[in-house]
Structure formats: structure tokens, C-alpha cells
Amino acid sequence: MRRPVIGIALVALVAVTAPASADNAHHTPTRSEVREAERKADAAADDVDGIQAQIDRANASLEAASIAAQQAAEAYNGAVWRLQQARKAERVATRASRRADRSLAVVKHDYRDAILESFVTGSPDLNEFSALLDADGLSSALDRVATSEIVQREFVEKRSAYESAAGKAEEAEEAAEDATDEAADAKADAGEAKDDAEAAVAAAQSAATTVADEKALLLQKLARLEGISVDLAQQRQAALEQQRQEEIAEQAQQQAAEEQAALEQAQQEAAEEQAQQEQEQEQEEQEDPPADSGDSDDSDTPDDTTTDDPSDEPDTEEPPATPPPAGGAAAAVAFARAQIGEPYVWAADGPDSWDCSGLTMGAWAAAGKSLPHYSVAQYAQSTPISSGSLQPGDLVFWGSSSDPSSIYHVALYAGNNMIIHAPRTGRDVSEESMYYWIPPNFFARP
Predict the structure, then answer these.
(1) Does domain 327-446 have CATH number 1.10.3470.10?
(2) Where does the record locate the signal sequence feature (predicted)?
């Protein structure tokens, strides 16, 4: 939108029509002089609009750098979280491998004893031949054959147990090796993610400095063109940006309200349709009862297909949203509010500095619930809800797409469309409108 440049036009017009002496004090501007004044005014207006466009582009570049930094910082948190999970899996696999090795050692010892016993007692055939030579005769031979068969069965069982234990030990060792490799890969990924986050944060800080310097020069030009002081130009620009942000927030809030109303309407219509179908089905069953398949007296046999007890009717109402733990949500909000004013530092989780998921993790830890230091995992470990179901203590997320894996920012809902969060580098923990920025697209209850 072109700014009004009446003042500039008047200045230009006076400049071209100013009297050179008292003789032409009542000089009437010619048509060409008026056109020239209008041309200069238009040129000045174009400069004003152009400068404003440059300021808008500078703000947009700063916003893009800020989002990139948040995405990189949460990607690092995710890499660290996966590394922790991989190391945990490695410890579990290593312990399982050690247990399998100990079991194998026991079974191996039993198997070795069985082999030695087999060599000492000799083969079943030799035992039978020796028994025939004994004074006990055939009866003793049969006893010896039976004993030999028992020994052989025990030998086979111990051999089978050994082979099974050996196989399990080998599998456990391979699993431990795989877990170790995965942990090493996760560590490497975390290192790369850390480098990326550091680079993105440095780029965002550099962009902030560059944009601040650029806006200062542009505002100086704007002040000269509009004939006002630099301070006034800065105040007007801040007010203009605040007005735009409020308009965006209002539009986002209205859109969210419309979407929630549409969702509730659809749910109500679905419930009414289901209730209507059940009512029609019940009427059909009452009008056309099932045929009697036996000879028993109908008056003595209760009809199990229908009931007049309303408690047996299926529940057609929407189940209420699961409430947060008693006192837990209030404690989480109180903790987060106590951190307001503390600085944002990427990957920080307190006690004096925070990033977005570090703050929500700390808040819910104060409420007695453990959450990971990673916004994507916080959403995955919580119960998704709609924006219309938000209660204080719930989590509000921003993602770059409709896929939860794209989440890169999280805040704690404080009620009345307000959130408490650690916004980004250069901004402290604050409480502000949920729609202060781009609209959130994920909501969940821990």
C-alpha cells in the first residue's frame, strides 16, 4: 500500500514555485511546473514504498534464519535423544550377551561332563556284552542296557541344550555388536547435528545483526524522505509491524475458531446420525422379533435380543478429553511462568537458560512427569488433542508440515490463548499470544 505523500508533494511544489524576488511573489505555477512537482512527489513516494519493501524483506530474512536455527537446534536435540536411546539399547544388549555367555558356560560344563562319562562307561553294545559274561546273566544285561539308554538320552539332551545355548549366545553377541554400531552411528549423527545447529544459530545471529544495521540505514532514509526524525520513523515502523502482527494473529485465531467449530459440528452430526441409525434398528427389531426356534413357552423365556434398560444402550456421546493429572498442569504452568525473563540458549534445559523443549521438559518434570528433551518425542509421548480442547499445561507445537516429524518448536499452554515458551536466540522466555507468530498446527496433552 502506497503511503500518503502530501507533505512531500507540497515541499516539491514549493521548491519549484518559490519566488525569486518580490516581483514574482504572486507567480502562478505553470502546468509544467505542477507536473514536475507531482513527478518528484511520485518519485519520493516510490522511494518510500521501496524502502518499506526492503525493510519487509529484511524482516522476512531474519524470520527465515530464526526458523532455520530452531529447526537445527531441535534436530540436534533429536540426535542426542536417539543417541541416548541407542546407548540404552546397547547396555541392554550387552547385559543380555553376558547372561547368554554365562548360561553357555554352565551348559558347556555339563556337556563336557556328559562326554567324559560317555567315554568312561563305553558304548551300549560293550556294556551289554560284558553283562552277558557276568554271573547275573541276562537280567543284569537288560539292566545295563536300560542304564545305557538313560545315559545316552541325557547325553543327547545336554548336547541339545549346549547347541541351543551356543546359538543364543551367538545371537546375543551379534545383537550387542549391532547395538554398539548403532550407538556409534548415533554419536556421529549427534556430532553432525551439533555442527549444523551451531552453524544455523551463528547464521541467525549474523542475520539479526545485519538486518538491524540494514533497517537502521533504511529508517534513516525513510525519515529524510518523510521529513521526520529517525526516532519517530523507528516508532512508526515498530507500530506498523506490531499492527501487522496483531492482524495476522487475529486472522489465525479466527481461522482456528472456525476450524474447531466445523470439527464440533461434524462430530455432532456424526453422533446424531449414529443415534438415528440405532433408533431405527431398535424399532425394526421390536416390529419384527426373531422367530422362535424351540418349543418352549415364549412367556417363560426372556428375549435376549432386546432390552428396555437404558443402561444397556450403546454410548453415542463423544468421550470427554482426558484431563491432565490433578495439580500437575498447574505446577507445570507455575514453573514455566517462574522462568520468564531467562534467556533462550539452544540445547539448554535450565536452570537459568532454556530452549523450547528444554523448558517444557523442565515444567512437566516439576509436575512429576518425565518428558524427553525433544519436541517431536514430546508430541509422540503425549495424547494428541484439538485446539478447542486445550487446557493449561497442554503442549502447543509448530511444524513445517502436517507430519509430526516436522515439529521444531513447542510451548506450554497457559490458558486464554496464551503460551509460555523459550522463543529463539535473542528473545527471553516469555508469555504471549499463541498466535503471536505463525499459527501452531499440533496440540497434545502429556
Answers:
(1) no
(2) 1-22
